[in-house]
UniProtKB/TrEMBL annotation:
UniProt key word Transferase: yes
Key words of the record: Transferase
Pfam families per record: SQS_PSY
Protein's UniProt name: Phytoene synthase
Any single GO BP term: carotenoid biosynthetic process
Domain of life: Bacteria
GO function term, MF aspect, one: squalene synthase [NAD(P)H] activity
InterPro entries the record matches: Isoprenoid_synthase_dom_sf, Squ/phyt_synthse, Squalene/phytoene_synthase_CS, Trans_IPPS_bact-type, Trans_IPPS_HH
Pathways involved: Carotenoid biosynthesis; phytoene biosynthesis
Amino acid sequence: MWQAGVASGRADTAPIAAELAPAYRHCRDLHRRHGRSYYLATRLLPAWKRPHVHALYGFARYADEIVDRTDTGTPEDRARRLRDWSGRFLAGQRGEPVDDPLLPAVLHTAEVFELDPADFAAFLDSMAMDLTVRRYADYPALLSYMEGSAAVIGTLMLPILGPADAVAAREPARQLGLAFQLTNFLRDVAEDLARDRVYLPQDDLARFGVTVADLRTAAARRRATPRLRSLVAYEISRARGHYAAARPGLDLLPGKSRTCVRAAYLLYGAILDEIEHAGHDVFTRRAVVPVHRRARLLVRALRG
């Protein structure tokens, strides 16, 4: 069991206390198993920063697992689990003892870097939305969800990355979170559909003459129609707009932090390239960046 209030209150390179090591390892293992591209980029950070990035990833991934595991009970059961887990996290933020396999690492990282509690609350609110909201009428509605599910992850990362100008870096960080989230949505259309979730805005579907039934047919046949391909191409252009808005933020980061984020930027952007190479068909196979291309992109990130 770990209690908040023992951190240094400032970011430094001090070793992590022994009692926190298991929680940090748990977060690292989640990151390594589920976030391959992001985990690979994180390896480019100074060693003392990596556990804190793993902690944020572990926090996000664990909450996502609660709401996404449709084989582990009813939506009401998952809502109760999310409330209980969120309650433990909020109690830890108040300085109360926390008994949890990963939350001590998250709470420690939040305290050391003085992360905004409102960002964590916004993230948990978006996770709760996933239990009840399955469609988004338009892009502003989807952006409202992504503010908590993605944009705040970018702002939570900033103090760890250490930009020279945190104010100037904030919006690019938000935009990168949105870019990554949209990339995931496009790659995982079929996977999300299996959970009866559609993250492509309904008015975009209508614009291209596509229905949810068309998405289900394409998923069953493992083949996209021309209209679906056009829809995906449109959404890729929207995602690339967020990548472009995020790009100036790379130059505000120091040394290895810049290399790490550049690598993530290139690796995630390459997922969109793979979708384009597949003719904008996200149903035949899941878009994966080949190992040899990932290696080249990492070299490119290292060279600047």
